[in-house]
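re: ur question from earlier - yeah i can do the single chain one, its not a big deal. heres the input i used so u can compare w yours
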Amino acid sequence: MLDGSFAANGYDWWWHSFTGVSDVTGREKQFFIEFFTCNPALGEDRPILGQLPDNRKLHIKPSYLMVKAGCWGEGKCQLHRFFGWSDVKMRTRAPYTVSADNCFSSDDFLRGSVEVGKLECQMHPEYMCDSGSMEWDLKLNKVTAFNVGYGASLPLREIKAFEMYWHAEGMKTLYDGYVVLNGERFTVTPERSFGYADKNWGSGFTSPWVWLSSCSLTSLISGKKLNDSVFDIGGGCPKVYFLPLKRKLLSAFWYEGTPYEFNFSKFWTETKTAFASKETDKEIFWYVRQENSDAVMITKVRCKKADMLLVNYEAPDGSKRHNRLWNGGNGIGEITLYKKTSTGRKLIDKIRAERVGCEYGEYDR
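and the output i got, formated as tokens:
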């Protein structure tokens, strides 16, 4: 997606999150891996880091492939590895591939490693990361997609209408392989991976920034595990030609073979959205209520701050305006889904959500 104006002022990233099980203790761990590309037209032999003091003074834009990896919960961390564009190989047409050294990402495979020493981390705050090591080798099977529709259609992509685009090709993804985190090996299996994969691209980020998703769902009415279900919510304040569309979210719920979509860009569905987030000393809370002409979906999620990260990104222009972007994978919540009828609404199900991927943040004032 980094062509036209996005080539020198744009990012394109592929995000993955999933669960692994320790070979030693049997405990679960939630992991994430991301390949983040930025400003290839400005590329040099070495990565250009926008948060270096001299680069900030001179307003020099960043340019690199950043491989981001880490985990949530106990021992949480985010690790960054940077490559200059001369070391990056990228297929610019579908199906995509991105590779540098031993790091590789595609629709079907994910391999790589990141290692950041404690002293290196202390000496280089421009890396925006923690210290530690992580290695992975994974196969992907993207089972369920959320195509957001008109907002990411070819005409609007070509004219770069939006500041930030989103496509969740694998809102339910099965992962198979292993992760080694700081020397501890975790096995990842399709049936216990509870995986997610999407991509974002554009010239800037949204504020507020909201994301909620899980395929680890159980009916509170029947007690049944909902193995063919997944929900995904994202957005906040999309911009079209710098004009903000305030408090807009896109969401989809694939419920046991039946799709429900709440998409403001499909105006004929009469989608309405209300959402709020709250931060306390110990937790982040999300509340989202969406309805369209056919259904109503109410989502409530909470996540312990002790399990979350303040995830770091710099924008293609070199600014870093998100400095409290909470990011987690251990959220829990409840979803209530109704079908609208001629006499009111009928309860479809009340659902417990676990291992919820979640984000919330707003730009610094």
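The radius of gyration is 20 Å. not sure if urs matches, ping me
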